[in-house]
Design brief:
Number of helices of chain A: 13
Oligomer: heterotrimer
Helix content of chain A: over 70%
Radius of gyration of chain C: 21 Å
Largest interface: A-B, 49 and 44 residues
Number of strands of chain A: 0
Distance between the termini of chain C: 55 Å
Number of domains of chain C: 1
Largest sheet of chain C: 8 strands, mixed
Structural class of chain C: alpha/beta
CATH architecture of chain C: 3-Layer(aba) Sandwich
Number of strands of chain C: 12
CATH superfamily of chain C: P-loop containing nucleotide triphosphate hydrolases
Chains: A mainly alpha (331), B mainly alpha (278), C alpha/beta (328)
Shape of chain C: globular
Strand content of chain C: 15-25%
Chain lengths: 331, 278, 328
């Protein structure tokens, strides 16, 4: 009972901190945007600026609240925000919330698959490298991670596109479903085909972080006293790993992986761009390029939420492990 | 009953010397690439419709693009641009990091302030912040440089702040305080000399990040106009011509970028090995 | 009648063989670690230079030496789990057969078991009982492990706890339980009495003696000469990486004294002998020694001691000493 209370307190405290932070993010973003040399009316109308009559312009200006003072605009926007109304997207002519909702599922599927795949591969590679420290395989894995970290994420996507879509023709070139098909006709297999390459791209990018962390953790554990004793008992190789190293390294690895939600989101933006995958990433790029302020702010706030959840889960995991050890329970 | 000797490839005092040579080699390589950018004139970048869509050859080691422009020179200019952007961004970032870390050492209030600022900047993904700032500043080189500068200072600030905390608690700082030396004096004569190695290494290591992010944001379309040969733009434009099978438009610029990033990373890491005999 | 006689004779021979059966014999053991000193220079640490040991079934042999003299690494060297950047040289025979790397791998945890010094030698996230169960040779049931726990004085409920929930004393008992569970023939106890109060020391020594009485060989590595003298059948004195003396308890019981000046000094430093302090500094592990390693502190040192290195001389059956003026 006490434990649940404590965890509850922990989450509550963090959530409050996040809300304050989110508020700060929103305020700063809004301030930044409002001082930018962007005229919302112009971006909305685009080339049709010239053709529009004065009264219509007035109406649109009203709508966008351009004639209000900055503070009024902000409070206007804030009240809308608190009511769950993030405004209307200029680009998609829909409510921002709706846009985010629609595209979130697509991006989420992509991110979830990549996160899991890169987590598994990264962990395994890290363990192999850590347990074989100093050997060729360790050096190879280290170099691989080093070069991977120096590679632009989108370039990997383009390469995969060239190899698997153009040369081999195994996968489609982009989007999330075949063009021209009705939504009802799209099968799971179709969706899968479209998601594999972007997911593969994202997975590859996400490996190096968890691999290097796990490698270090494995190496640290191998130096510890209880491993010396385990080896004295004759345990080694895979048995040593399965018995002792696995449970001592898995959760820290997962925790670190949760904390990489930020990079994951950044990667999604690039992957979606390469594969024209209609998710949040593509949306925020379009919003930025086309001065769709409400949508841009909305996705910025959403990304902050995403990073927050990732960090919270990472810390909760550590907290949970600590708790179990203190109570003398196994994991 | 001899057991295997897992010997590490250091070799007495030659180690430091070897690291030094690696650094010199890297710097030369880098200078070669960087300075070449200054000598690439309009001519080499010109469109030449008679030579369009050529795959790599002796004449055009990286091939040509759909406008007949030589890709080798375009790539080099792209790299040149990247490191210039990286330089500006890194300088500004480092300056911010130094200022903020020193500020945080003044008293508890400022420390909390700086920490909160760091948390603020780390609360949204790097790329998202970049997009936001680039958008706000209306794009262009200015937008990118400032964007990168303002998103990369947090980690360096954290490192410097930790260093300063350590220095602060040292004997000789206490002594200087008691002797009544002004804060500025302490900063100049105690903090800064100690921080120099970290600062320098941190500065160099900012480059790889800056370059990668610069290519990412130009790829997305923020910032530079399509004529300017930034690697990101080269790659995003190249995507339109992939179906024509012109793989060299993508492979070589990408590899060159990776090369440059690796050089800076290696430079930074080797410098760290030299300056931190741990 | 004829056949019965022969049978008896054979049985007699077998018994004799077992009794004189050398369990472990170590000769000229050395362990050198390669390390990095200041400023990237490579240095060699001669942690063990020339170690000798003999132990039979049912015997307790104590290796006595000052703290930090590299005694723990002795256990590592014999077991073959020494650090990666080190070389081990010398001869080790287990049950009269050469101990190769391959054989050692098989024997670790089966025939030869280490009882570690630190209580954090157990996996912090695994149940204690499970960690003992993995060592059992025959039917590994929870029940059999719990029986062993009772035998060493542990509450069977300890089976389900993890190390952080157990006291130091309990964990030490777990180590003894492990020794029993594994049915190992050779037990190496690394500083078993370190940091314990008198009562716990007695308890621990008792347990170790019981292990030995069960026809096992127990090597006890310790800096506590007093404890060693309580249960050891033979005492090997370790100084500067070398065996400087091996003495049989029977000799001491008869009123004999230690033969090596260093051992004598250790003896004199015991409370009941007057607490005569000695300069317990040892030559640094990086020094290459010429002459006797103890020469600089030895009250009996002569010019010969400084120039020539004394070799181990055998005295009687199982005793040896490394000194030109042994016993004088």
């Amino acid at each position: 009972m006490l434990q649940i209370l404590n965890i509850g307190k922990f989450i509550l405290f963090r959530t409050i901190k996040f809300i304050i932070l989110l508020f700060a993010v929103i305020v700063c973003s809004f301030l930044l945007v409002s001082y930018s040399p962007v005229d919302p009316i112009q971006s909305y109308l685009g080339a049709e600026m010239m053709v529009v009559r004065e009264e219509q312009r007035e109406e649109i200006a009203e709508y966008f609240g351009v004639n209000e003072s900055k503070t009024e605009q902000f409070f206007h926007w804030l009240t809308m925000f608190l009511h769950g109304d993030l405004g209307t997207s200029l680009l998609y002519r829909q409510e921002v919330i709706v846009v985010i909702q629609e595209r979130f599922l697509a991006s989420f599927a992509l991110m979830a698959i990549s996160w899991i795949v890169s987590g598994i591969f990264g962990y395994v590679l890290g363990v192999i490298a850590g347990m074989n420290e100093g050997t060729m395989i360790d050096k190879a894995i280290k170099s691989f991670c080093f070069i991977l970290a120096s590679t632009p994420a989108f370039w990997i996507g383009i390469l995969l596109l060239i190899v698997f879509s153009l040369w081999l023709g195994w996968f489609p070139i982009g989007l999330s479903m075949p063009i021209g098909m009705l939504a009802e006709e799209v099968t799971v297999w179709d969706r899968l085909k479209h998601i594999i390459l972007p997911a593969l791209t994202l997975s590859i990018i996400g490996i190096s972080n968890i691999t290097l962390h796990t490698r270090q953790k494995v190496m640290d554990i191998l130096e510890s006293e209880f491993i010396r004793f385990a080896r004295a008992k004759g345990e080694e190789g895979f048995r040593l790993f399965a018995r002792h190293i696995f449970r001592n390294t898995l959760f820290p690895a997962i925790s670190v992986h949760f904390a990489s939600f930020g990079e994951l989101f950044g990667g999604v933006i690039l992957a979606e761009q390469v594969f024209s995958y209609p998710g949040l990433g593509q949306a925020i790029v379009q919003a930025g390029l086309n001065s769709d302020v409400p949508l841009l702010l909305g996705i910025v706030a959403f990304s902050a939420l995403f990073v927050f959840i990732g960090n919270l889960l990472a810390d909760l995991l550590y907290y949970f492990i600590d708790l179990r050890i203190k109570n003398g329970e196994t994991i | 009953m001899k057991n295997q000797f897992l010997s590490i490839d250091f070799d007495n005092t030659n180690y430091k010397r070897r690291v030094l040579w690696k650094i010199i080699g890297l710097v030369c390589l880098f200078l070669l690439v960087a300075l070449s950018g200054f000598w690439i004139g309009e001519e080499q970048l010109e469109a030449n419709m008679g030579e369009k869509n050529l795959s790599p050859s002796l004449q055009h080691p990286f091939g040509t693009d759909w406008l007949g422009r030589d890709m080798f020179f375009r790539t080099l200019s792209g790299l040149h641009l990247s490191w210039k952007v990286g330089l500006f961004a890194a300088v500004i970032s480092t300056a911010i990091a130094l200022t903020l870390s020193l500020l945080s050492s003044v008293n508890h209030f400022f420390d909390s302030l700086v920490t909160m600022l760091i948390d603020l900047f780390l609360s949204i993904p790097h790329l998202v912040a970049l997009i936001l700032i680039a958008f706000v500043l209306g794009g262009g080189v200015k937008g990118i440089v400032i964007g990168i500068a303002f998103t990369h200072w947090p980690s360096l600030t954290r490192v410097l702040r930790a260093e300063i905390l350590q220095i602060k608690s040292a004997e000789y700082v206490h002594v200087s305080r008691k002797l009544g030396k002004s804060r500025m004096w302490i900063i100049r004569h105690h903090y800064l000399p100690q921080l120099m190695p970290q600062l320098f290494v941190g500065f160099i290591l900012l480059f790889p990040h800056a370059i990668l992010h610069e290519s990412a944001i130009t790829f997305l379309g923020f910032g530079l106009s399509p004529e300017q040969p930034a690697i990101g733009i080269i790659l995003s434009e190249a995507m339109k011509y992939l179906t024509m099978g012109m793989w060299w438009l993508v492979v070589f610029p990408g590899l060159s970028l990776i090369g440059m990033v690796v050089i800076f990373d290696a430079l930074g890491n080797n410098l760290r090995k030299l300056l931190n005999p741990n | 009648m004829h056949i019965v006689y022969e049978l008896n004779h054979e049985i007699q021979e077998e018994i004799e063989k077992i009794q004189n059966h050398l369990l472990l014999e170590v000769k000229n053991l050395s362990l050198t670690i390669e390390r990095f000193g200041k400023g990237w220079t490579r240095e060699h640490l001669y942690v063990i230079r020339d170690f000798h040991l003999k132990i039979h079934h049912g015997e307790v042999v104590a290796i006595v030496g000052a703290s930090g003299s590299g005694k723990s690494l002795l256990a590592d060297a014999i077991l073959g789990i020494h650090p990666k950047n080190s070389i081990v040289d010398g001869m080790i025979k287990y049950e009269n057969k050469l101990l190769t790397e391959k054989r050692r791998k098989r024997l670790r945890g089966n025939d030869i078991l280490l009882i570690p010094q630190m209580t954090n030698a157990l996996d912090p996230l695994m149940k204690v009982g499970k960690q003992v169960k993995t060592l059992m040779k025959q039917k590994s049931y929870q029940k059999s492990v719990k029986q062993i726990f009772q035998k060493v004085g542990l509450d069977p409920a300890v089976y389900d706890q993890i190390p952080s929930a157990c006291s130091g004393g309990m964990i030490r008992k777990v180590f003894i339980a492990m020794a029993l569970a594994s049915e190992a023939k050779l037990i190496i106890a690394d500083e078993p009495t370190n940091g314990l109060d008198d009562e716990s020391i007695e308890e621990m020594l008792f347990q170790l003696k019981m292990l030995a009485k069960d026809n096992r060989g127990v090597i006890m590595i310790t800096h506590d000469l007093e404890a060693a003298m309580k249960i050891a059948d033979k005492i090997a004195v370790f100084y500067a990486g070398e065996t400087v003396e091996v003495v049989d308890k029977k000799h001491l019981k008869k009123g004999g004294k230690f033969r090596h000046p260093y051992s004598r000094a250790l003896w004199n430093a015991l409370p009941q002998n007057g607490f005569i302090a000695i300069d317990s500094s040892q030559p640094s592990a990086t020094e290459k020694l010429t002459g006797c390693s103890f020469a600089k502190q030895c009250p009996k040192a002569t010019k010969k001691c400084n120039m020539e290195k004394p070799l181990l001389k055998e005295i009687g059956h199982d005793e040896m000493v490394r000194c030109f003026y042994a016993g004088m």
